[in-house]
Amino acid sequence: MLSYNFFIVLNGIADASRLFIIATGLTITFSLMRIINLAHGVFYLSGGYIALTVMEHTGNYLLAILAGSLAICIVGLIIERGLLIWVRGQDLPETLLTLALTVIFQDLMHLLWGGYPKSIPRPKVLDFSVEIFGLPYPTMSLFTILVATCIGIALWLLIERTKIGAAIRAGVDDRETAAALGLNIPVIFTIVFSMGAFMAGFAGVVGGTLTSIAPGQDSQVLLFGEGSVERRKF
């Protein structure tokens, strides 16, 4: 009975870790930059699909993670500098713009990867189970818990204990004063948005490996992420 309850708790922690990774990028853009990024879900899904393609052609999981995360980071950089910069601070235009991007990305993903659920193959180093209380438990779930813990600690240290984090918080709290003190606010905001996009792509890789990726999942992921942001802010 004790082992059964332990596995229920462990499964809950693993699932919560997956949602935490998903919500991290949305938390960065929404809680720090006040940008209602409705395209976060398609960033997640696109990162997973890109990683799946790289994994199928190379079999290298680390390369798949880097490709999925960095590709979405670059997309986020282009969107922020090319589009969002023109509607900075305007809630309704930002929302409509990211909503339009969501529709465009959904059509592109359906065109490129089809409409069937897919799963990213697990690397051999994570494709086995460990014995806990005499029962097997997937290593991928333990890996997800470890990754979420490391991300949480790293982001807390970045935001609360570094000069870059102080500059980000200053730019959010009082943009005009921070700019008057010599901080390049547009560059800081671009870095933060790109970081959020990177985390969305990374979450797509982890989520696609742990469960699966499929059309329509972007909306589900966005709802989960928004719920997590409401409960937890930096």
> Element order, helices and strands?
HHHHEEHHHHH
Strand ordering within the main sheet: 1-2
Distance between the termini: 38 Å
Mean pLDDT: 84
Q: What can be said about the biggest beta sheet? A: 2 strands, antiparallel
Strand content: under 5%
Radius of gyration: 18 Å
Shape: globular
Structural class: mainly alpha
The count of helical stretches stands at 9
Strand tally is 2
List the helices and strands and how they pair.
Layout: H1 2-32, H2 40-58, H3 61-82, H4 91-113, E1 129-132, E2 135-138, H5 139-161, H6 163-173, H7 175-180, H8 185-210, H9 217-231
Antiparallel strand pairs: 1-2
Helix pairs in contact: 1-5, 1-8, 1-9, 2-3, 2-4, 2-8, 2-9, 3-8, 5-6
What are the key terms here?
9 helices, two-stranded antiparallel ribbon, disordered C terminus
Would you kindly provide a written description of the structure presented here, covering whatever features stand out?
With 234 residues, this protein is mainly alpha-helical. Helix content is 75%, strand content 3%. It has 9 helices and 2 strands. The chain has helices at residues 2-32, 40-58, 61-82, 91-113, 139-161, 163-173, 175-180, 185-210, 217-231, and strands spanning 129-132, 135-138. Strands 1-2 form a two-stranded antiparallel sheet. Strand 1 (129-132) and strand 2 (135-138) form a beta hairpin. Helix 1 (2-32) packs parallel to helix 5 (139-161).
